[in-house]
Design brief:
Length: 259
């Protein structure tokens, strides 16, 4: 299926590995030129080179922390007029809310709510002027089914969800859509860190907890970043202009909702 976005430009955050990398690969396969942003230079350059070789698209790499003002400035300097923006940032650490102070909450809101909002603010008017824009925010299934150990993430990402719900209905008339992808358990470094915390708290072997969590999912497995990326690419497609303000669960059926 040709998504009609060949030659478009995308800014993809936290794109050197995991779900961000899955999105970058899927967009590149559609002929989209990429600006990848990540904090670790080595993995970032490796990802950029691999995508160039595999898909023959233009790929620039910006080593920066997208959650900082300087990082966002560097990303936007490299890709000032993106047609596609994929917002993504590592989630805050798991734990007990009794152990978190104000600085922990501010950091979580800054990274997982304010950073995507500020990036949207920087690019959305240009998208409207050009008559095309696709913004996808990678959030979490915890927005619909909060996970107690991920309280910082639950709160910050829910704030972003509320903001997007309003703005997405203002921009769609100009063919600029904004949607959220809500991953459940995917085999990423983030999931490994969460399960390591649980295993430590429960004093159980990591593999035992990992396999138990896989078995609990209706799909009987964890997701892989490639299939997540395909969903992202579809939402970025030219024919997806009637989909906006949505929160799409990609979780193997883990969240049981009837509506």
């Amino acid at each position: 299926m040709d998504l009609g976005i060949r030659g478009r430009k995308a800014l993809v955050c936290a794109a050197s590995r995991g779900l961000g990398r899955g999105c970058a690969d899927a967009l590149a396969a559609e002929g989209v030129d990429l600006t990848l942003v990540a904090r670790s230079a080595g993995p970032l350059e490796e990802a950029a080179a691999a995508i160039r070789d595999a898909y023959g698209v233009q790929v620039s790499a910006v080593c920066a922390d997208i959650t900082t003002e300087s990082g966002r400035a560097a990303a936007l300097a490299a890709c000032p007029d993106p047609d596609i923006l994929v917002n993504n940032a590592g989630g805050p650490p798991p734990g007990d809310f009794r152990d978190w102070d104000r600085d922990d909450w501010v950091a979580a809101v800054d990274a997982n709510m304010l950073t995507p909002i500020l990036l949207i603010k920087s690019v959305v008017d240009g998208m409207l002027e050009r008559g095309f824009g696709r913004i996808v925010n990678i959030t979490s299934s915890a927005v619909k089914s909060p996970i107690p150990i991920l309280g910082l993430s639950n709160g910050a990402r829910a704030g972003l969800t509320g903001f997007v719900a309003g703005l997405a209905r203002e921009t769609v008339r100009g063919n600029v859509t904004i949607n959220n992808l809500l991953p459940g358990p995917f085999a990423t470094d983030r999931l490994k860190a969460t399960i390591e915390t649980v295993a430590s708290q429960q004093q159980r072997p990591f593999d035992e907890v990992w396999n138990e969590r896989m078995a609990q999912n209706p799909a009987g497995r964890f997701g892989n970043p490639a299939e997540f990326g395909q969903a992202c690419a579809f939402l970025c497609g030219a024919s997806a202009g009637y989909i906006t303000g949505q929160n799409l669960l990609i979780d193997g059926g883990g969240v049981n909702l009837t509506l």
